[in-house]
Amino acid sequence: MNRQTIACWIVALVAWHPAGIRAANDGVFAEVVGPVFQQSCIKCHGQNGKVKGKIDLRTIEGASDLVSDLNRLETIIDVIDANEMPPEKEPEIDPVVREQLVLELRKLLHAGARAERGFAPTPIRRMNRFQYNNAVVDLLQLKVVVFPLPEKMMRDRSGYFRPETGKMPDKLVVSSRQLGKSALIEPRLAGVGPFPQDLRAEHGFDNRGDHLTLSPMLMEAFFKLSRRIVQSSNFDKRTVGIWQEFFVPPDEKKELESELRQRLQVFLGRAFRRPVEKDLLESYVGHVMGQLKSGKEFSGVMKEAVSAVLASPQFLYLYDKPSGSGETELLDGYELASRLSFFLWGSIPDDELLELAGSGKLVEPEVLIGEVRRMLLDRKLKRFCDSFPAQWLQLERIISSLPDETIYRDFYYAPPNYRTSMDMMMEPLLLFETVLIENRSILEFIDSDYTYRTPRLRKWYGEPTKERLGGPITLNFKRQPVSDKRQGGVITNAAVMTMTSGPDETKPITRGAWIAGVIFNDPPEPPPADVPALEERDNAEDLTVRERFAAHRERADCAGCHSQLDPLGFAFENFDPVGRWREKYQNEREVDASGTLFRKHRFSNVAEFKQALLKEKDRFIRGFAEHLLSFALGREITPADSPSLDELVARTIADDYRIRTLIEGVVQSAPFVSRSRGILRKTSSSIESKPATVKAQ
Question: Is the pTM of this model over 0.85?
């Protein structure tokens, strides 16, 4: 979508009004939507006072009623499209009618999104810990990190990450920060400790604006941190790339105040991501000159100036200027440069981005897409790989996974009990990096014909290996083909299977919820508070896991979710609690992994389940696009984003599902290049989110 098209789209937003929606679509409602509601839905949603899911369809008498609550409309579309409604015991909607119904409801959703006159605003927010470290490193051109970052799950130990080559090497060496030896901490500034890790939002990411607030206590912590950075014993010419140009006194032939002004103007422009205002610049210049005239040493005074910048709200906060017209507007070049750099590099824009922003060229479609492609070939792209995929896959859960030592003794090795999960967690991350660097199909996340494994992983999966198992200091991975359809992709790797299990048994519902949330971006609602634990039956040892869960499926308040999650979770029952294949349980009962996906794709094993997922590949692409756009914007996705998401999906499908096509589409999408005055009516953005229940590292 080019900038002119987006501008026209924004004009259209202003022109739409609910009255126009009513006039244009009430005929469709009467002919298509209303009859289906009456025949298949009203029985549970309004008839005789019965209102399930808090949706009373009796209150919807026309198109304008539907679009008055876009969150509700989107929910209706989702459950009908996924065959979740009507319930299993009720007559199904004719497939042709269902398809037409979903099509017409989507048209209404798009019309309603335009009538909203804008996108959900991203709240003003501070940088998270990962972004702060990157921004300080880039601003000062540090040759070391600022502080340890446990959220970076994988460290490159062989220099393999070279996106400019367009190819991942066949062999590479990595290490694990969380589960490996502490000696593997990267070189860093001495005596500088991090502030607490920012938790991933539930079903989201750690860059969400509604989570990144700045309390007075944290503001004080940032001030102290900025002082510790410049006072570090190794903050000098050996570690600071701009030392010569910024901290070394100017030549005596140069006029001191003029030279200071020039240095500070460049530095502040980089730090604040736009030209510094004259009054603010003069304030910094005046303070530095006053300190120098009092006899203080030059580099020490400049360190104080840097400390002030690093604790400044202009540096710490990410925000867009409010819309001047009160309507949705396009971002200016500097805002676009900042949004783009924090999306792909997790940091401040480089000089090239700022120069293009200042010249007004960055907002031009050809220039913008050229910059995206340049950034995708830069090694700073590793920061995107260190942040997005691990959070998308919720891999932090593997860190707290502790299989029963008495049952799975070989899961642990070498004092003090290092875990095979060190190797497991790297496999899906390396697959993601391969898809990104080689611009491969996103569908390989479901099923790929290659993977990366260490000798320890090959042995774990039952493959013959004569190599030394390796670890825990470094992990040697090799790229290898995968012909077994039970393997390949991210959904059946040992990391996911282990982190969605308990210490001694699998958890099919947890696995199903993971698939629903991660693969389809449709996480289930929390279970009712009064759901009892599984009863211990006299013959429990003789039952399969499926038979033990049968009681929950019989409860009316549980049946709805179980009908959705059970097929997703039980499909993986052949994988034991540590991700190894099994045909039978310990009681010699055969594993039953059969089911039906979306009530239309039958499968008998996990290989057939993966094929069923690929039959719904466009649904997966939509979910992945929602995850990616949410990460790029730093906020939840709302129904107002739906038209843009549909365009992203169509564009990606047309280019064989290539990941860079999707990334380029995100950057060119209307929500990404626009600032908003906010949403007028109720949407999903009104739902308060919670932080993920994961301990800070």
Answer: yes
